[in-house]
Write a structure and sequence with these properties.
The chain is α+β, with helices and mostly antiparallel strands and 190 residues long. The chain is built from four helices and nine strands; from the N terminus they run αβαβββββαβαββ. The strands form two sheets. It has a six-stranded antiparallel beta sheet. A three-stranded antiparallel beta sheet has the order 1-9-8.
Length: 190
């Protein structure tokens, strides 16, 4: 027969090793967030210059994929260095190529962020422009502050005020279809 203290000890161990909560963000949601926040309605992002002046660089047709524990962005880079032509259009030099950049989804405080950014298949002359896109607009678009998003879900959902005084992301894992964040939290309602 087990002693009462043994049962209490087992109960405490079970409670402290309970699984954390999970949020799964699928590839399609990441793609939508990136398009909405980092690109215009036509799926383009102007990096430099002005297309009306025939002197610009832009990224278009972005597509996200998850594989090998990383998030990959493949897009087309296009640049024109020219002048407006008398009959319309542009006269000058044009360059266009596809590139791929990747980052590892990681926990950064209360947020999902990208680390270890890698840029592949890009012409060296354009590397600074593409790096600025990834470290700036795309990284910000894909940064998900878990506390903020959970608080949005809680606000106005009930007739009382709920808050998250404690939240800790325990792990971030990436499969070929989604990023999963496991976290512990404390929810208070007043």
């Amino acid at each position: 027969m087990a002693r009462p203290g043994t049962f209490v000890a087992c109960l405490l161990v079970t409670c402290t090793t309970a699984p954390a909560a999970e949020i799964v963000v699928y590839e399609s949601a990441l793609q939508s967030a990136m398009l909405r926040q980092a690109f215009d309605v036509n799926g383009r992002r102007l990096l430099a210059g002005d297309p009306r002046q025939c002197n610009y660089a832009l990224v278009q047709q972005p597509a996200l994929r998850l594989r090998e524990g990383r998030l990959f962005l493949r897009a087309q880079f296009s640049a024109v260095l020219g002048v407006p032509a008398p009959a319309g259009g542009c006269t000058g030099l044009a360059d266009s190529f596809w590139f791929e950049v990747s980052g590892q989804p990681v926990a950064q405080g209360d947020a999902l962020a990208l680390a270890d950014l890698r840029l592949d298949e890009v012409k060296e002359i354009y590397r600074p422009l593409v790096e600025s896109l990834m470290s700036g607009a795309v990284s910000q678009a894909l940064r998900i502050n878990l506390r903020t998003e959970l608080q949005k879900m809680l606000d106005g959902a009930a007739g009382y005020r709920a808050s998250l005084p404690a939240l800790e992301i325990r792990s971030v894992t990436t499969s070929d279809e989604a990023v999963t964040m496991r976290f512990d939290f404390r929810l208070e309602a007043r």
